[in-house]
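Hi,

I'm pasting everything inline rather than attaching a file, because the server keeps stripping attachments. The sequence lines come first, and each chain or strand is labelled.
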Amino acid sequence: MPFFSFKKILNTYLYSVAILIFLIQLWYLLSYYFFGGQESAANLDTYTVSTFLCISIGLYFFAQYRRIAGIIGLILMVISFLKIIAMFGGLDYQLFDYFLGTNTRSYIPISAILIATAFVSPLIDSKNDSHLPEVTSLTVFFLSIFGWFIYINGGFVSSLVSVKSLQSLIFFILLSLGIFLVYHENSIIKFKKKSQFQIIMVLISTVGIMLAATFVSERFIYNSLQRQFENQTTIIKNEFAERLQLYISVLEGGKGFFNASENVTREEWKTYVDTLDLNTNYPGIQGVGYSEVVSPQDKSDYIRRIRSQGFPNFKIHPEGNRDVYTSIIYLEPFDERNKEAFGYDMFSNEVRRAAMERARDTGEPAMTDGVLLVQEIDDDIQVGFLIYVPYYSTDADLSTVESRRQNLIGYVYSPFRTNDLVEGIFKNFDVGNINFSIYTSNIINEENRLYGKLPDMNPQNDELHRSTSMSIAGKELTLYFTAQSNFGRNFIFNTAPFFILITGLGISLLSTMVFYAIVSSRQRAELYASQLTKDLQKQVTTLKSTINEKDRFSNMFEKAFIHSPIGISIVSLDGKWIRANDELVHTLGYDTDTLTETSIEDITYPKDWLVEEALNQKLINGETNAYQLKKRFIHKKGHEVWTEISVGLVEDSNKEDRFFIMHVRDITTEEGVDQAKTDFVSLASHQMRTPLSSINWFVEMLMDDKKSLTKKQQSYLQQINQSSERMVTLIDNLLNISRVELGTLVFNFKELDTKEIISDIIDAYAKRAKENKIDFKLEISGDQKTIIGDEVYMNIVFDNIIANAVKYAFPETTIDIDVKYFPAHMTVSISNKGYGIPSGEQSQIFSKMYRANNIKAKDSEGFGLGLYLIKKIINQLNGTIDFVSEENETTTFNVTLPYDQE
Amino acid sequence: MTTQTQKRILVVEDDQALNMALVEKLKDADYVVDTTFDGEKGLEVALAKKPDLILLDLLMPVMDGYEFMTSLRADEWGNTAKVIILTNFSMSEEKVAQTVIDKKPLSFLVKSSTKLKHLVGYIKEALSSK
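And the predicted assembly:
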């Protein structure tokens, strides 16, 4: 997201404009009402518009929070807008004033209501619409621009370049920027109120400082301009006054001429005026003339006299009967214009008369108001005036008005064309970019205007103006000065405010941006930090609880380990004790410290260690997961302790930190019991064998001595022998079974030739088989291999099966024995044709003490132990045994044996 | 009186009947036979008479066959004396097997499984070989 976006900037403008204009106009409002302003009604008109614009803008600003105020504001804005249009369009916008009013009295209450609404409405409606701020902002922005445009144009166009309005506009724009950035609803950074305030304050203060600087410099310049203006205008005024006074002196001189001379002839007057060289010395004087008072009775004589002087057409005009007449008889230079005035009775003219009478009555020079001179004969019409100096009879008493009236002879006067006069006066005079106009009274209007243009009485900006009065020839003239726009332009400091403005603008913008950046980044950092902290806290909390769990757990485990009823130990891969729990320590009789300095090997029965070591290696290599083993430890006291150990390899995923975990169960008692059983069996069988051996041997010795035995005795001995042989077999079987049951079967593995074993057994049974005419057929197939097996038990297995085959075969049948060699194993199949195993009993044939019914009936000799035993043996050797049998038909027993039975 | 070719056999067997049978059979087979009924006496006789072969039972009072073997093999002569262990224990008994491995009798026979004539055969073979 860009640091600044147009939308944001816009919005800022708008908000700030709203606030500021609102406040300023509020200030105007209040100051006008409470402190009394100087503005005229006309001035207020533009104010009204902008005021309402601003109030409504202000309300619209609030509108983002308060709907009601917003709606009212909107209405007001619409009305204001319409008024502006009407103004421009030259339409009658007065009707809007009924709503808005030009009169302060009307819009103050309205404003008050609106302001009150703005503040009260939050109590009613504080909904905050989502997009209202943006709309508000845009509207306010354009309206503020527009409003200011209006404002400016209401005054002087030239004031567009006025620093003041420009600066105000810029000020608002800047403020908008600042405030927008802060208040923009969708800003990524939610500035804290404090930061918002800070940013605004920076913006306001920097802009404020800029404005203050500009203002101060402006004031300074204004003041100096003003002073300059004052000075200049004073100079102009003085110059004018002096010059006029000078001209009056000319008239006085003329009067003096008349006083001095008994009779002034036309030629003498001409000489006098010519000498004056009016054009050179007294520019602007139309002429210097003399007008004589003529009484009605003297009128015709007077006309005749003048006519006789060479003016046949002379007459006193205007025609008519009047109480008294005056006639201009001398007017030099007697040019075309002035000739028009010849014989003119100035008394007939009201304005002239007024001055003339004043002059007559006061004895002082008198000036008329503005008149249209008679001399105005062409298009170049100027306003003019005349100054009269009264001429009385010499040596007359002129102390009273009456006496003056009595003694008035005539007037020395001058007509002035004001433009020419002024231009003449200031021909070589640098007025210095000041316009002025002259009025014959203190009322400045067209009627009284002598010279210049009527000033704009509604100056929109503080252009310099000055109204000053001067007393000339009994007239209070008013000079109204206005500084032209370029007044003081040559004054170098005039441009300073502008530069200050620009610089200040730059600085404030920069500083605001910097501050904004700082605050926002700080804000971001804080946000990030707080987020991070929150996350971290969360993590820490989770971690803590996890650790607690783990602690608890590990404590539990620790305790469990130590106090387990079974010995547990941790052993290194090279067979050293790392840790042993209490039970193990107790079992072995060592203490923990000693134990950790020994290895397992050290305290294991040597024979058992070999097996254990091999199994451990298998664990390490991953060939097996865990193992169980019965082994003997050597107790500290030196005796053997039978234990059952369960060992597993513990490793983590990257195969580091591997160790054995060994459970040690003391099976002394069990072993003791087992041992007792084994010993019992061993002893019992031994004890049973002993008398049997005795019987066998003595019978054997008896049978050796055949000569001394009868046939009957021999056969009886034979029977005895057979019985005792059976007994031996039984005892052997019992012994084997007990070993199987006790798990003490021990195999003695060596290389064997199965074929040979089987052949031997066949030979052993051959004689018995022959008794029943039963044959053996031995078949061998496949690659003959030797097996690793136990000779004794191999014999037991095949002896058992073959013995059964012989025992239960029908006479005159053949027993087939197939020995097959396969790549990984060998099979021996022994088949006979005989009684077979009934199908109902086949599942139980390998059970202990089981003899099938059909056989039991026939032969009660068997013990039912054989098949059980050999199945156990074969299973131990990783082989299999199964059979197929049909009663009274063929029975086949199949034995599968791996080559390596170890 | 013993001749040079006649071999002397010592029987160490505690069972009366068995002892008698053995002595009879051996005498019949033309051997000079000494007999004792316990291990202690047997050891005495063995070391004194230095028989060519000893038939040793394992389960005996006073001194059993295991101890006999241990003591016998400790003796300089006894170390190489020919002994056939004749017992009704089976090789599957661990102690028996251990003794066989350690003490190196010539052979090991189970009485109840061995006919006398076969025993004589074994003896003959043992005495003829070195």
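The longest strand of chain A covers residues 640-650.

If the labels don't parse on your end, tell me and I'll reformat.
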